Structure formats: structure tokens, C-alpha cells
Model the fold of this input.
Amino acid sequence: MIIAVLALLVWKLKLRLDLKAEEQKQRQQHRLQQEFSEEPQRKAAWQRYLVLSEQRDAHAASVQACTKTTELLAAVDRYEGWLQTENLQNFPKNIDFMHAIAGERENMRRSDHTRRLADGLSDRIRKTELPPHQN
Done:
């Protein structure tokens, strides 16, 4: 009888240890799967960030190069269109900038302000808020 009780206790202990080991194994597999699935997303986010950074800098250079009011207005319109196309218009810093552009449109039409505005706007465009990324 004592041997049967001891055998039952040993069996229950072994069962409990086996269940814990299996649970740990499944958790580890789940963590590995999650890491493997997140890696492509991180790479894609980083690549998108790099592309958006290059495009943002190109828009800033385009605005800075403007010497005529019509060029400046067209460059700013292209930048605004880019924000819309890339869904960047709703980031807080970008909203503030869009409001600032709206307030400066009248000054953009006056040639004596073109150079000053082009320089100021290009600096602000370089600070365009982009989506988060991890590298």
C-alpha cells in the first residue's frame, strides 16, 4: 500500500514537472514566432522612414531653391500634397505647420518675402514629423 501511494505521488510530481516543461516550451515557441513576425514589420517601417526622410529633404530643398512667388506657392502645394498622399497630415507638428502655411499664403504672393519665407519654410519642412520606426 505504501509503495502504491509513493508511486502515485512520484507520478503526480513527474506529471506536474512535464506540464510545466511543456508550458515553458510553448511560451518559448510563441516568443520566437512573435519575434520572427515582428522583424519584417520593423524592417518595413525603417525602410518607409528612410524613403520619407529622403522625400521630405527633397521637398525642403525644392522650397529653399524658390526665387519666385509662383515657384514657392507651387513647391508648398506639392509638399502639402505629399503630406496628404503619405498620410502624414494628422501628426501634431505637421498640423501646426499646415496652419502656419495657411497664415503665410498672402506673404508668399509678395515677392519681397519670397526668399525669407522659402528659407523659413524649408527649415520647418525638414522637421516634418514622420511615423515612428525602430532600427
In short: The first helix runs from residue 2 to 64. Helices lie at 2-64, 69-85, 92-108, 114-125. Residues 19 and 109 are 75 Å apart (CA to CA).
